[in-house]
Structure formats: C-alpha cells, structure tokens
Design a protein that fits this description.
By secondary structure, the protein is an alpha+beta fold. It has helices at 2-19, 36-49, 78-81, 112-126, 141-150, 166-169, 197-200, 209-224; strands at 75-77, 86-87, 109-111, 130-136, 172-179, 228-230, 233-238. Helix content is 32%, strand content 12%. A 5-stranded mixed β-sheet has the order 2-4-5-7-6.
Length: 263
C-alpha cells in the first residue's frame, strides 16, 4: 500500500512541474503552437516595413511630365507666339528710309519676355475690334551698322556701339493699330517719317481728334502690359528693364537681302 501511494504522489509532482514550466505566472495557459507559414509571413511583413524610404530627388528642375518654366531670355519667332499679330517688316521691302530691301525675310523675332507681353496686348485690343501690326522687332547688329554707315545721322540712328540699342536686345517693337480687316488706323505720321519729327513725339497735341484717340488707344494697351514708350517716336515701345537683356550676338536670326552687304 505504501508503495502505491508513493507512485501516485510522484506522478502528481511531475504533472505539477510540467504545468509550471512557463515561468510567466499565468497558471493554466496552454503553450502556443508554432505555425511556420504564419511566422514566415510575419517576418516578411516586418522586413517590408523596415525598408528605408528612397532619398528625395535633387532640386534641379521639374520632373518628367511637369511643365517647364519658359525662359524670358529665349529668342522666339513672334508668329509662333501669336499668329494673329500682323507682321509687316519695312526692312523686308522697299518702303523705308533706304528705299530698298534690306532683310531677306518678312520676319519678327523677339525675346520671349517681350513676345508674350505683345500677345497679351493683342488679346486686349481684340476686345475693341482692333489688333497690332509690327513693323520691326529684333534688329541684327549688322543692320544697325549698315544703317549707321548709310544714314549717319545720330538723330535718326543710334551708333552701333552706344546707347540703349533696345532693338538689338530683342525687347523693342515698332507697332501700329489695325482693324479686324488689317487696315491701319490713322496715326500722327507714317512709319519713320522723320520729316515730321514734331508730330512723331508722344507729346504732340496739335493733331486731329481721331489721331489722338488712336495714339492713346495704342499707348494704353502697350503700357498696360508693361511696355514703355519712346517719347520721340509714337510707334516705338520697349521693356523698361532693357539693361537686363544683353545684346543678341546671333545675326543669323534675320539675314540680309541678297547683295545688300556686297561692296
């Protein structure tokens, strides 16, 4: 009998020891059964969450697909910026102070800063049933030298090496107003009509009312978009910050008419 009780007591002790092996103090909790598939998935999740964030791209311009900011210094063809603006380059024909053709093409190029402002002027004038006609924009250095050598009058032509030379910088335009059919409106003088120097000035007031009204319409539209007038020529406007734009060195934008520069 004593041996039987000893055996029962020993088995009970072993069972009690097995139940207390967790050491957590949570009596009666069953030990967790390891699921290898679940453990692998949890490991992969932890590793994915620990992946470092890629470093930001350097701030060297917009990413692919984002619009590029236009360069105001870029030389552009005005006809591509606004094809509704009429271009009548007087140097591309014989109706000018030279009495002969000087430019190979009837073309107007400008710095983008000036061209886009001129397009806004055109949009403004359209609401009044009017538009712009451009007689000259950028003037190549070779043309400035040719005019100086040919005309030689400092009251009419700036020296190629001095002065503001706003046309050569690509930020000046010679313009007038036209109606929707392209007919020019009455203005103080003809283009470059230097025999009427006093009437050419913006301050000239002894002019017909219609002429004064048209001149003011052009003045208001141009200044509203940031151009400033040249006081001695009603048709000439340029950007006020002209010194910020260097002279354009590329003469190939506008070439000479055949035989013009031949001696």
């Amino acid at each position: 009998m004593a041996k039987r009780w000893l055996l029962i007591f020993s088995c009970g002790a072993l069972v009690a020891a097995a139940l207390s092996c967790g050491g957590s103090g949570d009596e009666g909790r069953r030990p967790a059964v390891l699921d290898p598939d679940r453990a692998a998935q949890e490991t992969r999740t932890r590793l994915a969450n620990r992946r470092p964030t890629p470093p930001p791209l350097p701030d060297d311009g917009p990413a692919d697909g984002e619009p590029q900011e236009a360069d105001p210094m870029e030389v552009v063809d005005l006809a591509k910026i606004d094809p509704t603006i009429r271009i009548d380059s007087r140097w591309a024909g014989s109706d000018n102070m030279l009495g002969r053709r000087a430019y190979a093409k009837n073309r107007c190029v400008l710095r983008r800063a000036a061209a886009e402002r001129l397009a806004r002027v055109q949009k403004r004038l359209k609401t009044q049933g009017l538009g712009l006609k451009v007689w000259e924009g950028y003037r190549p250095m070779w043309m400035q030298r040719y005019l100086w050598d040919t005309v030689g009058d400092p009251d009419l032509i700036s020296h190629p090496s001095s002065g503001r030379r706003t046309h050569i910088r690509g930020i000046a335009v010679d313009v007038t107003l036209v109606d929707l059919q392209g007919r020019e409106l009455a203005m103080p003088t003809g283009y470059c009509e230097f025999s009427k120097a006093e009437q050419m000035k913006h301050g000239a007031m002894k002019l017909p009312e219609e002429v004064l009204k048209n001149r003011k319409t052009l003045l208001d539209a141009m200044t509203a978009e940031g151009f400033e007038p040249y006081k001695n020529e009603w048709w000439h406007y340029n950007l006020p910050n002209w010194a910020d734009f260097p002279l354009i060195p590329k003469d190939e934008w506008i070439g000479p008419a055949p035989g013009l520069l031949e001696k």
